Structure formats: structure tokens, C-alpha cells
Request: fold
Amino acid sequence: MSDEQVDVLVIGGGNAALCAALMARETGASVLLLEAAPKAWRGGNSQHTRNLRCMHDAPQDVLVEAYPEEEYWQDLLKVTGGLTDEHLARLVIRASSNCRDWMRSHGVHFQPPLSGALHVARTNAFFMGGGKALVNAYYRSAERLGVRIRYETPVASVALDGDRFIAVRTEAGERIAARSCVLAAGGFESNRAWLREAWGQNERGEWPADNFLIRGTRFNQGVLLKQMIDAGADAIGDPSQGHMVAIDARAPLYDGGICTRIDCVSLGVVVNREARRFYDEGEDFWPKRYAIWGRLVAQQPGQLAYSIIDQKAVGRFMPPVFSGTVADTLPALARQLGLDEATFLRTVADYNAACRVGRFDHTALDDCHTEGLTPAKTHWARPIDTAPFHAYPLRPGITFTYLGLKVDDTAAVRFGDRPSPNLFVAGEMMAGNVLGKGYTAGVGMSIGTAFGRIAGTQAAAAALQQKESHHAIA
Reply:
């Protein structure tokens, strides 16, 4: 394929890549998208998503009440602990307020608010049919607009002339040149060797990364991310940080997706392999705090923990895909889990004795809390005393990594803080600019959508400008 045949090359096949391809094509550029996965597994991690976190100042179609910019920013500030670029974060937040009409124009449908989930419907717009339906809609729209798509085409290397993009070489050895390029090929969460390097060995002699499950795609190996960093591109983020969730320990190694999440953590207690609690299960609403639990479990012995609830909690959370361990007594539950019975019973007894039950309300930061207990449980604390008792085994489930390429608001890859004139990046490969650590539901899709659209627009402008200058010279 010669330089004359494609204006914009997009590497990746998930939400950010598709947004870039669609925007570039709408701008008038010819576009080729390379997806490493087979067609059946296209879409990267986006196929497992459910929603988009959206700023809005008043009720808007599928969003209830209001979720203003400052509240969104404060939520992000809280979960990241300040490890975020405020300018880029606010860019994402503002872009989240006006992207849904564009998404609808490409076939995405949104789920009307569901009763009982209004605190989520206030902040997040849910995709009808989930991320798979969103990805399929974007691919249909891309094909209709004339975006060329090639599956099973992993890229092995990028050729640069200084900070200028020239071409890529696929794993099959094919050279593909383009006037500009958007990198949207995901993080390195599927690369076990790199995860091992990032997490290292702990004081117990364990390699925590060996026990991580990959919630999403197996195709995110970080090949181009590593190569760009080695080529001198400015990097941002800690390689050990990422979107990591406590998921069912029995989940598959790859592509377990949303259904492997365990959502009853805030309704009971979580104990490690030594039968001890290690963190406040009631710190905040689950959509804000669920993503801290993968990292917490990763720091426990054997990277294993158990979410324990009693019958009072049943029916109050999204049912897990796998049945829990059930017992009529707490000693029997401890024996089934292989936990030290005496330690487990003491942990639960100490927790029960510390509970100060007020008005229980799982939709609010209620006044049910513990006193004199370390760690405390600050909300939704009720004694675990009603049989049968249930337990779910937890392991760290990594969704995507936060080490990425540094950008400004043009999405350009930077070399020594100098922006490339024709190489751009979007999605997981730059999410660390906004997410230094932590996570809040739906913000990954907000970042991918905002920067995918920016990168596609900028790449098309760069390509068309180059084409015009060539014509002028000719």
C-alpha cells in the first residue's frame, strides 16, 4: 500500500480507535483501521463496557437530575488522589456533556433510567446492549462511511523520522504508510511479563502479577506503547497502576468482562486468606470505589480474598455469574473456604460487636457504621448474623494499565515535550494523563470518546494539510 492510498491510519479496534476513525472520515480523510483481533473478538475492552460518565447541568434524555462539571471533577480528584492533569480532565468532562448526539448519529442507543438505579442514572448513560452493541454500531457506521477495516493485523513496529510518523510494519511483515496515524491499541494488561516487571516481587516472595486475571481482551500486549517509549516519546503514569477490580477468582483468564465482578463487598465484610479484614468495605458508593478493590486484593497473601455476606444482603446487588459458597453456620463456612476457623469467627464477632446500626439505606451514605474497630466500616455496617451465609472468592481482575503517552489537548504524541506533527494517541494508551490511579465508573469511555474524537480530527487535518502542500508543490 503506497503513501497515496491512505490519509489516516488508525491502530486499534476499540472505542477510542473507532471514534478516531469516524471523525477522520467525517472530516474527509481516507481511513484504514487495523485491528489485531479476529472479527469475532473486535472492540478491545470496549466490548465489555456498559456506560459513559456524563456531565450535565440539568436532566437530559437518559440522565436524571444534574451532574455538573465541578462535581464530576471532585469525584475524579477524589479517586485519583490528585494524580490527574486538571486541564485534560476538564476537557474530558466537558466533552462528555455533548457527545451523545454524535454517538447516536453512528447508531448507538442508550438505555432509559432503570428504577432502583437512579444514583447511577444521574452520572452515567448506559448503552443499550452494552459495549458490544456500541462497538458493532460504530463498525457498521465506519463501513458505511468507507473506512477500510482489516482484522487479525497486529502491528509490530512504527517507523518514525524524528517525531514524524512514516509507516508501520505488521507482524506479517507488511509495510503500511500513511500521512498521519492514531495510536489506540490499548495498554499492556495482557502482557504477563510486563505486569511481572511492573509489580515485582513482594515481601512474601510472591509475584503478585502471576495471580492477576485479565477482565478484557488478550490482545493488549503493549507492543507499540513500549516501542514508542523506547523511541523517546514522553511517557506518563506508574506501570503498576491501572483499572483493577476484585472479580470472582473462578473467572476465566481473559474476557470475563462485567459479569465476573463481585458487587456485594459493601454489604458485608471482606477477609483475606488469613481470615482478617483489611479495608473499609463501606467507604463510598460502589460505582465510585469498586475499582480500588482489585489493588487491595493484589496486596493480600496469595492475591486472594473472600466477600462474606448473610441472608439480609441477598437481592440487594447484581447477582454474580458464579454461585457463592453457602453454609448454615459461620464455622461451616470457614471450613468450606479453608480458612482458620477460630480467626474467622473472631473477625466476624469483632465486626458484629462494633456495628452501630441506624437507618440502613444502601442508596445513601447511611449512618450504619462501626465503632472501635480497625479497619472501620463507615457505612452500611450491619451484623453478619442471619443464615444462610454466603462467600465469594476474589482475585485482582485487571482491565487496563495507566502507563501511557503524554499528551496535550491536541492528542499529539510528544517527544521531549515537542508535539509530533502527524502522530496522535487516544484511549488506554494515554488515559494515564487523566487517571494517575483509581477509577470511577464510566470515565474510561469518557476519556476514549473525547480523545478518540480529538485524535481523529487532528490526524485528518494533518493528513489533508500534507496532501494540499504536496499538491501545491506539484
DSSP finds 13 helices and 21 strands in the chain. Residues 443-473 form the longest helix (31 residues).
